[in-house]
Amino acid sequence: METKKIGFFSRIKNAIINFDAYQNFSMEKLSVAIKYFIKLMIIFALIITIAMVIKVYLVGIDNIIASDEFTKYYEMNNWTKEGIASYLNGNNIIAVYTAIFIVGMIYNFIVYSVLIMIDVLFLAVLGFIVSRIFKINFKFKPILSMSFYALTLSLILYIIYLVANTLTGFEITYFRLGYNLISYIYLITAILTIKSDLIKQQIELMKIIEVQKQVKKDFEERKEEEKKKKEEKKEEEKKDKEGENVGAGAPDSPPKKDKKKTPKKIPEPEGGQAIQ
């Protein structure tokens, strides 16, 4: 099925505020949803890594070197604190921050992608169960596609929380619970919205079928009426024709004979008038 191409940021917007869009998401290929997820995770890892680099800058490289984590690390590798400090001074500091950014970016992308992918799978399983409870014949694949989008708002909130936690140490005890709860609400709402849309479509389809039946019935009635009219017209024409034939077979009345006019008798003259 060919679907209209939607931009990445438009997808983010629709995933957060437009539940009707989830029906379109469910009909797309799974690869489209995976690409969307990868782009989200790249942005996720990028923002978290930038926050981490800022934290390193604010704390200072020297303080990090002096910390017990780091001390054990360079002692195990036969490094001296002075040697590391001298290496970090001058032009090498740019290379160090670049290395921190690259390593942090790769690390954050891989680790968080795996963790959040597990959340997506759990979310899809929950959605599949809910769809069966509400008697919606959804396969697992479209629910999995919708699950990637249902996590959008949760991921944005997760980014904000991790940035705040990295820079300030701010913590929310049950953040992960709220994070998962938001995504569950989104997916279940999307499934119920699709069910509602399907019911509306069925009702509209039934109305269309009823209208088609009525139109067909009216057409057949008109056709039957026209047929009757034609038959009546033929019957009348037949009667008229028979009447004409009867009139043509009757004998003509005999022609009237012209009466011959007899000349008037001239009266004979009386007496002397007869003798000239």
What topology emerges from the helices and strands here?
Blueprint: H1 8-17, H2 21-27, H3 30-59, H4 61-66, H5 68-76, H6 81-88, H7 92-133, H8 140-150, H9 152-168, H10 175-249
Helix pairs in contact: 2-8, 3-7, 3-8, 3-9, 7-8, 7-10, 8-10, 9-10
Give an account of the 3D structure.
Helix 3 packs across helix 7 and helix 3 runs parallel beside helix 9. The protein has a domain of about 190 residues. The radius of gyration is 51 Å and the shape is rod-shaped. It is about 80% helix and about 0% strand.
The total count of helices amounts to 10
Oligomer: single chain
**Main sheet characteristics:** none
* Rg, nearest Å: 51 Å
What is the arithmetic mean of pLDDT? 79
**Class by helix and strand content?**
mainly alpha
The fraction of residues in strands falls at under 5%
Distance linking N and C termini: 138 Å
Order of helices and strands: HHHHHHHHHH
Helix content: over 70%
Strand element count: 0
| Overall body shape | rod-shaped
Q: Uncertain runs with pLDDT below 50, 5 residues or more?
A: 271-276
Keywords:
276 residues, mainly alpha, disordered C terminus
